[in-house]
């Protein structure tokens, strides 16, 4: 029911009402995913929606600074921001209130974020998020864990047949650095890689080969993880790039061990759109055309603590998840007791006045001889 | 853990982080209460946190206009407000997107509201709310239903022994109107009633008796519902006040029939702090000193539709609710499978590196011979 009769004057662009039954479904999905996170030892936080902009926009928050609504706090006369992402808040809490707790910290959250502007592809300006952060652990097993926990959370709400796309956002910068590439070559390569223009990449690389010479073959290796890992293994990489490749191999092996059937792709040369990632980065795509369900990866939390995490997008998850049967609605005549039927999963809808009929109250069942009986549609 | 080491510079006054285990507990309480609402046929909505201020501050929203954060929408160049209450949003949806649905509508919601300033008694500027609205039904049974549903939601999360305080905010205005009281007498009486100063009320009433003459006896009748109802029944009331009293009696009888043991008090002359109520108003107090857990009552929704509702305050409910046992944490050595233990309610906390010990990961259990065994504290 979210699509009928939108009145453009009623709500600002990109802000919407979630109506029945979607609002209940989204909340149920989120809480089911949070149960999975809790099951893996991720403890829930609830940071406020508003905080001082200097803490909100620190660290990884800088990536969403332009997208953050700002407003003046009349109490402190300081500027506050409405959060556009939750990860910076978790980083703040880890570095302050939880600074004394042994690492790694496993934390999770669910809530709304707000953005100043939507994009053409993602017009919403209020987005639900549910995520996990593992802070203070550098092991490849940590990256694997957050990816596998996110996949498990999606499976619990019925979203299977997903694919995990892995990128190494530090690989191309490491190769450029080793090659001593200048600004013009760097931006030319970035542009060509972004367009996935292999001819342009090959032409640019020829101007300054050495460590960059592997780029065309790495680009061509993008695809199922095993093939891409083999190409990385065979490639002639400088030490920093070799370390990135070995780390990626460890992460992917750990994921495959824990999620054997999972479809994994690896793109070793993709590096845009992961602005604050410092290691392996993940995107989870749903089956068919259902789009991005989650993103995450390794980053530096406050005080340069190594961290990794995943953010799931419950609005996208809901579009990918199978529909659930609506709750049956039992009409309760005036004075009838609905408690036994609620205990069996019915919504009991009480008549409050004589004009309240089962049809008006959109009931699916009525009481007959003390039993809940389906109401058959009239001819 | 919400009280240790607050750094006043870190977060704006009245905005706080909810830490483990409180954040999970609050979310669990809210969802458990939402299940009760759904069981009574209340369908969940999720309005956006931000909307145009003219719709947000319409109707009952006017009561929180001064408490609403305002910000400019760069897309539309119109002013938006961050919601300070959810009821006006539900009213908007009922009057627009759900205008074609038969009445009464039963709707529910859970989410955050934000306020520009806290008060001395309630310093928080971000408050969780969970509530029900019954729109398009004028029957006393509707008022009784929202009160009883709220009481049941509290009971489900372990908050029993509550008291329901009922007020009739239209009673004193109806008596003043019938008496033709002028502005000076009205404000004098309001002030005296607000201070519960029976001598001052008696003195003021003597200046213009008639319909106001009942005020001292109504004031004295405040207390357990049965006694107060009897006093109302015996009082000499003008017709409008008599209708209010009869409606109150119907509502209270319906509540008593559905919640026989409930402690109910009635204050027929309290009328401040219920600025938009047009009939019976409710406050639910927790046991002991735990304060207000919920408020609600009858009001006019958009297009003057009769409506009634209750808003529960999950932060207060959490303070009043019994603590729950923390989730046991099972240490998982590298490579061990935690799934069977998660299915039994454990959080399984995986070692990711050799320095990850059960103690560091704050585990309560470890694996011995394939079983989860409590870790005994060392001497």
From TrEMBL, chains A, B:
It comes from the Bacteria. Residues 14-317 form the Class II Histidinyl-tRNA synthetase (HisRS)-like catalytic core domain. GO terms for molecular function: glycosyltransferase activity. It is found in: Cytoplasm. Pfam families: tRNA-synt_His. Keywords: Amino-acid biosynthesis, Cytoplasm, Glycosyltransferase, Histidine biosynthesis, Transferase. Pathway: Amino-acid biosynthesis; L-histidine biosynthesis; L-histidine from 5-phospho-alpha-D-ribose 1-diphosphate: step 1/9. Its main location: cytoplasm. InterPro entries: aa-tRNA-synth_II/BPL/LPL, HisRS-like_core, HisRS/HisZ, HisZ. The keyword Amino-acid biosynthesis applies. Required for the first step of histidine biosynthesis. May allow the feedback regulation of ATP phosphoribosyltransferase activity by histidine. Heteromultimer composed of HisG and HisZ subunits. This function is generally fulfilled by the C-terminal part of HisG, which is missing in some bacteria such as this one. Belongs to the class-II aminoacyl-tRNA synthetase family. HisZ subfamily. PANTHER family: HISTIDINE--TRNA LIGASE, MITOCHONDRIAL-RELATED, HISTIDYL-TRNA SYNTHETASE. This is ATP phosphoribosyltransferase regulatory subunit. It comes from Neoroseomonas terrae. The gene is hisZ.
